[in-house]
Amino acid sequence: MAPSKVLTGARVVLPTGIVDGGRVIVDGTRIAGDAREDAETLDVRGHWLVPGFVDIHNHGGGGASFSGTADDVLTAVRTHREHGTTTLVASTVTDDMGLLVKQAGLLSELAEQGEIAGVHFEGPFISPCRKGAHSEKLLRAPDPAEVRKLIDAARGRARMMTLATELPGGIDSVRLLAERGVIAAIGHTDATYEQTVEAIDAGATVATHLFNAMPPLGHRAPGPIAALLEDERVTVELINDGVHLHPAALELAFHHAGAQRVAFITDAMDAAGAGDGRYLLGPLQVEVADGVARLVEGGSIAGSTLTLDRAFHRAVTVDRLPVTDVVAALSANPARLLGMDDRVGSLEPGKDADLVLLDEDFALKGVMRRGSWVVEPQLG
């Protein structure tokens, strides 16, 4: 049996608050309450210890896509783990239904192996009016029979599906997803305020990248944003990369939804961790320049090149959010949403030993997943 590890002296972020000079004990793959006699001690004074990040919306990274081969998927997973994301839901993008069914099967196998936490289907059941970086010719209304087909293809590993719930079949599809234990997310939508309220009442519980790919907030036609922000049953996704959202929009979301209803996501595509250049997002060509991904044809923003360690850094240094709120948005809230908060999302005994080591300026200095270092501590 491998010796237990004691990480000591850090500022540890726990569900109850920040503990200065705290310690985290790792025994095997789990966090423990007590250290064994043969425990190895690592002094991490001057650093922060926070839970591993949980990303519920991510299309790829490291030059590889979750719409690709098993090797591609593992490359993308590895890239994001090296940036602190220890739990990740793989998102597909609009494509031919046959290809999506096939990809769902591949991703479900990797979920069964513990590499990913499940599958998020973003498209094809979204609005052509708010398609963003999705192929319009492949879009369709959310027919419950086709929704069921995708869920079944994921073999119990479907976690979430993004829908334009105002389309024909949208409300029935939300009810189907809720019955099957799959998160119904409202996004890429042209819904009115009233239509959004109807979808939430039917069982929708997530706002897919709030503000993006939906009508703006209006004073006479408040649209989906107002409905999603005001309802306590809804968790709102935010892409905090400085491109997708103005800081005031981020502040508005935190103020109205509260820190317990925000989930920071990457919505990352292949270029995350890989640099500028030409990429594919589903069947569409994307040009990444200065870290911003846009469709070659039309210029729409095409996902992001974000990693969650950068989202953390920006949230505390630019947006000036409390560290405890940022940790909730990156770890505890998405873990709870996925129903995985008994295993991940906080540094508590009995949970997986998933943690991120940050220096006093919030730069990543180490990543542990299930008790093993993905990124060895850099303490110099």
Shape: globular
Provide the succession of SSEs.
EEEEEEEEHEHEHEHEHEHEHEEEEHHEEE
Number of helices: 9
Report the uncertain regions.
none
Oligomeric category: single chain
The percent range for helix content is 25-40%
Q: Radius of gyration from the CA trace? A: 20 Å
**How far apart lie the N and C ends?**
29 Å
Mean pLDDT, rounded to whole units? 96
Description of the structure:
- The chain is an alpha/beta fold.
- Strands 1, 2, 3, 4, 5, 19, 20 and 21 form an 8-stranded mixed beta sheet that branches.
- A hairpin with a 2-residue loop joins strand 20 and strand 21.
- The chain is globular.
- The mean pLDDT is 96.
Give short descriptive properties of this protein.
380 residues, alpha/beta, 8-stranded mixed β-sheet, 8-stranded parallel β-sheet, 21 strands
